[in-house]
């Protein structure tokens, strides 16, 4: 990050009078300071600059978890800068050390709800506590909830660590027992944090909080070598002289701790029998859900994070007034949740054991910096900033002028005007893009302006008037917040993988005999042998007994749901005639398709022009980082569209892998080339989702987007059809309505088909027959065999998205015995984060009972029912309400 921005920021720290006064006050042995003015990412950068001047520990306390993550990420960027370059513009006597930054996470679960935190939280908290006890220079960021949560006694925690260094005497069996007592799981080969393996004279330990495991190699009865290694490929990444291995969790239950826990619960007045049962349960299952709530009771007194910092530590408070208000709200929340838990006769710790007193903690540190929103009333600050001492508060008050981030809402004309005005006033401007690709796009868009563009993520921009320095975060340009996608893929299987899937009464199809009813599996003795047979009933009560070895001849019947099919007759000609007609139809269709695709390959298509600046602006507004597969697929599509031959490309990728974004960019390119776009989706709900997505992404451009679906009034449909015919509609999105005879386009250039397997083949090919020179883009997660075969035979081009997006979290699956309390907690946890819930039930007949059950256990939730026996319009209305957030479950 050896950039003009870094140099200008260093110059500000060297020359600013306000910062010099702040630095002077900060370097006193006891420093109580209030600072007003810093905004955006400048606030974490200022904290990093102050922390870097003292070889000690610092703690930053933020009001919310999101602010803690932003501060930690901004400081991590600052740390990278400090580690990769020298100290230009600073005093030559001071050499800037590399800044070590850690986030101390909150559990992430509601108090008293009994839900289990993410496994990574246990390791991350242990890792931070262990590093703090090492007393090395470290900057820790903690949200208020984590700051107020009790932690283990530091003296006890220090004794739990296992110190290993090169050359020391070492007993592998004793070490294995010790690691097991510390909560580590013994396995043949380590793969996740909290595991260890013993293999002869080698011990591997995957320590929590690290991306690498440590390997201890023995030389007879002492440690010969310590080395980091990658558990995935076993590659070594460097030797180390020693390591402190912390326990796998904050509290590893020992008999002594369990006795203290029991005494703590008894002191709250609980019955001894109930307490004994609970403690015995924890002893037998120390990783049970919600067990972290009992950690504080394992010690006679409560201990805070401050006890891990050391006497010379500095505590930075981000807006002490807001922290105090949030702490009061947390206290009331814990009290209410405690009362609810006690009304349910649950044994839980009292609120004061789970939440420490904020006022006492905030007043304890001798070195404290409070970043306030507004300067204190008693402080007189000049226009250029400065400092004064408030006698009443005993604090030094410093004001550093800093302006908030600007927002441009995707208006590039406004952005250019503001940048040109700022440059004319002598400002140095840096734009921070999250990814390299995004930085390159912005460089192309703003190539004629004197701005620096860096591929580095910051949480928010800021302006320092005194230094004439402006920082802009890319989200402020496009007017949207970056979100991390969580996608779930779900697709029904149509093959019989196991007869466990079938129940008596289900319809099946035998390849030679046709449609029958599965009755079950029966064991029959024949010719002196017993074997299992599949029993299938056909018309007129005839039965077929099929040996299990021939299960490949039977498939589940898939037809119109809710309609009973006609059973075939064993030995009859009906099934054979239907097969012959289907075979002839398939051959005719295959021939016509082959003829169609050969003509499309040979026909002269429309060659779209190269990308414009508008295309770059449109793509730069994408709020996520593209995967390599996505970028390659986008280039394939653009190359096809710019070629004179007709495009016919299949894009295959899982749900959430970015197929829609590819379609969006192709559609923009088509519209920019003066052609219309048609997007064909299989359902009304999906059509509406596509319509809203396209409207949002195209909002800043003069593009007209319309939709044809059941949810539009007939008169609106008539107007849209007429507008499409005259060419005033640029993008038309719809279901089967799009391919009816009355829908015509003036100059259609691109057809996008989403999830083609949901359409009839003739439906999809009809529009392509009408417009043989139209580029076609097909999106699918599960290509049907015909399409996949065409792609593999090179009749159609195919692009595959194999790579999941960055930060896509894995799906976590839990299997447990049915429990009302677990069900209610799971639903409430999802609703509390603003999510929605699918509850799957296996019988339509008893769905009303499940509906009533859900309304009883979570009366605050809005619950809707959908199943295949509802009529189509009613089911679509239910799903529409769910998609729009009107229903929660």
In which range does the helix fraction lie? 25-40%
> Biggest sheet: strands, sense, closure?
8 strands, mixed
- Roughly what fraction of the amino acids lie in strands? 15-25%
Q: Give the overall form.
A: globular
Q: Give the helix tally.
A: 27
Kindly name the structural category. Answer: alpha/beta
Low-confidence sequence ranges: 83-97, 378-392, 481-500
- Rg over alpha carbons: 33 Å
Instruction: Give the spatial strand order of the biggest sheet.
Output: 3-4-2-13-14-1-16-15
Mean of residue pLDDT?
82
Protein described:
This protein is an alpha/beta fold and 889 residues long. It contains 27 helices and 32 strands. The protein has an eight-stranded mixed beta sheet, with helices on both faces. The longest helix has 29 residues, at 574-602. The protein is globular and about 95 Å long. The model is unreliable at 83-97, 378-392 and 481-500 (pLDDT under 50).
Please describe the topology of this protein:
Blueprint: H1 4-15, H2 17-26, E1 32-36, H3 42-51, E2 57-62, H4 65-84, E3 101-103, H5 119-133, E4 138-143, H6 144-148, H7 154-160, E5 162-165, H8 172-181, E6 185-186, E7 195-199, E8 202-205, E9 213-219, E10 222-229, E11 236-239, E12 242-245, H9 255-266, H10 272-284, E13 314-318, H11 320-343, H12 351-354, H13 358-363, E14 368-372, E15 386-390, E16 395-399, H14 412-424, E17 428-433, H15 436-445, E18 452-455, E19 462-464, E20 469-473, H16 474-478, E21 507-510, E22 514-526, E23 529-537, E24 543-547, E25 554-556, H17 574-602, H18 613-620, H19 628-642, E26 648-653, H20 659-672, E27 676-680, H21 684-697, E28 705-708, H22 714-726, E29 731-734, E30 748-754, H23 761-770, E31 775-780, H24 785-792, E32 797-801, H25 820-832, H26 847-857, H27 872-883
Parallel strand pairs: 1-14, 1-16, 2-4, 2-13, 3-4, 6-7, 13-14, 17-18, 17-20, 26-31, 26-32, 27-29, 27-30, 28-29, 30-31
Antiparallel strand pairs: 5-12, 7-8, 8-9, 9-10, 10-11, 15-16, 19-20, 21-22, 21-25, 22-23, 23-24
Helix pairs in contact: 3-4, 9-10, 15-18, 18-20, 19-20
